[in-house]
Amino acid sequence: MRHAVLGGGKRMRPLLVYATGALFGADEDSLDTPAVAVELIHAYSLVHDDLPAMDDDALRRGQPTVHIAFDEATAILAGDALQTRAFELLAAASVSADLRVGWLQSLASAAGAAGMCGGQALDIDATGQLQSLSDLERMHALKTGALIRAAVRMGALTGGAAQADQQRLDAFADALGLAFQVRDDILDVESSSAQLGKTAGKDAAQSKSTYPALLGMDGAKAKLAELATRMHDILQPYGQPGETLATLGRFAVDRAH
Q: Which of 21, 67, 172, 244 could bridge to 234 as Cys pair (CB 3.0-4.6 Å)?
C-alpha cells in the first residue's frame, strides 16, 4: 500500500480538493480527509489498472508497478485495501452527517460502475477497435474525469458552495478531466518512458483509440487549446480567488509528464 501511494505522482486530485475548498473558505484541516481519500482511490485504481488482466504494465510513477515489485495477489489485495481505507476515513470524519454523506456519495459514484470502473470496462472492450470521438470522450469522462469531478465536488461541499457554484465547477472539472486525458495521449506519443515515469507508446501498442489517432496530432493539440479556453472562461467569475484552480487547469494542459 505504501509503495502504491507514497511512490511519487502529481497529486492532482487532492490538490483539487484543497483548491476548491479554499475558494469557498473551507478550513484547510477540514480538507485533509477528503483529499487523502480521493488519492487513495486514485492509487487503488492505478494498482488494479496495471495488473496483467488489465493494462499489464510494469512501470508506474517511475518505479515497478505493485504486482512487479511484489506479486499479483498482493497487488489485488493492496488495491482492495486502499479502496476500503478511503471510505473508512470518510465515514469516521468528525463533520456533519450531511457533509459526510455528500463526501461518500461523491466518491462512491465516481469510483463505481457510473465512473472509473465503468470507464475501465469500456476501455477494455474498445481495445483493438476504432472508436468514435464521442465514444472516446464518454469513456474518458468516466475513467479519468469522474474522480476529478469528485475531487472538485468534495472540496466545494466542504466549503459550503452554493448549488450554482457546484454546477459551474462540475463543468470545470469535466473540461479538466478531458484536457488531462488529451494531454496524456499526446505525451504517450511524444515522450519517453523515462520522462513519463510509465510505459510510453502503450496505447498504440495495444491498438487503442486516442485523440491523436482520431484527430491527428495538430487536431489533438487544438482540442487541448479549446479545453484550456473553456476552463479559463468557467473560472473567470471567481477572479483572483480562483487562481489556484486555474493554475491546476494550466498544469493539466502544459505538463511534461
A: 172
What's the confidence (pLDDT) of residue 140? 94
Residue 60's contacts (CB-CB under 8 Å, 6 or more residues apart) are 7, 46, 50, 66, 197, 198
Q: pLDDT of 184-229, one tens digit each?
A: 999 988 876 666 665 666 776 667 889 999 999 999 999 999 999 9
Torsion angles phi and psi, residue 63, rounded to 5: -140, 165
- Provide the β-strand partners of residue 64: 59
Q: Is 153 exposed, middle or buried (0-12, 13-18, 19+ CB in 10 A)?
A: buried
Angle CA(119)–CA(124)–CA(129) in degrees, nearest 5?
110
Helix (H, G, I), strand (E, B) or coil at 60: strand
Q: How far is CA 217 from the centre of its chain?
A: 23
Decide if 64 contacts 58 (C-beta within 8 A).
Answer: yes
**What are the percentages of helix, strand and coil residues in the chain, rounded to 5?**
75, 0, 25
**Which of helix, strand or coil describes residue 191?**
coil
Domain boundaries, the chain: 2-254
Query: If you classify domain 2-254 with CATH, what class do you get?
Result: mainly alpha
What's the pTM value of the predicted model, to 2 decimals?
0.93
Q: What percent of the chain has pLDDT over 90?
A: 84
